[in-house]
């Protein structure tokens, strides 16, 4: 019987933390406004609020703002993307890394994964290892090795088997990773 009030308090707190559509729109609007404004503090607060939604829509909104951000907002948005942790939120970032024509942005977004220690980020790195360009594969491989991610072993072996002539850097890194 004593546990019932505790459970009720937990459920009430969880319900209060759930975002309404109005909350999302308010935070998305605050982000767009902060990117047009001059206050770095407001921009960082807005990015934090959007990233806390930890959803696909949060990641997509942050990604969509990067081309409009200018130098003041660019790295802050990348840092905001490093804070999303759910599989649904990580997926648009992986897709952007794999498909964007902007090579510098692809590398910079990959840096967001290097800052993100969530298991979903490891999964994203494994996917990049399997599907990315040789340069992206090396970065993803290096990060997975640093993390000691066992889930990278199978993709590394597959990478070595699949490519008839993997470049020397990829081959050396893959062999180094497999020895660990």
Key descriptive features of the protein:
180 residues; disordered N terminus
Q: Can you offer a commentary on this structure?
A:
There is one protein chain. With 180 residues, the protein is mainly α. The chain is elongated, with a radius of gyration of 19 Å. Helix content is 81%, strand content 0%. Mean pLDDT is 82; it is low at 1-17. Helix 3 (40-52) packs across helix 4 (56-81) and helix 6 (103-115) packs parallel to helix 8.
Helical content stands at: over 70%
Distance between the termini: 52 Å
- Residue stretches low in confidence (pLDDT < 50, at least 5 long) are 1-17
Order of helices and strands: HHHHHHHHHH
* Average pLDDT reading: 82
Strand content: under 5%
CA-atom Rg in angstroms: 19 Å
Biggest pleated-sheet summary: none
Gross morphology is elongated
Figure out the total of helices.
Answer: 10
Class of secondary structure makeup: mainly alpha
E-strand count? 0
Quick summary:
The protein is mostly helical and 180 residues long. The protein is built from ten helices and no strands.
Topology, please?
Layout: H1 3-17, H2 21-36, H3 40-52, H4 56-81, H5 87-99, H6 103-115, H7 119-131, H8 134-147, H9 153-162, H10 168-179
Helix pairs in contact: 2-3, 2-4, 3-4, 4-5, 4-6, 5-6, 5-7, 6-8, 7-8, 8-10, 9-10
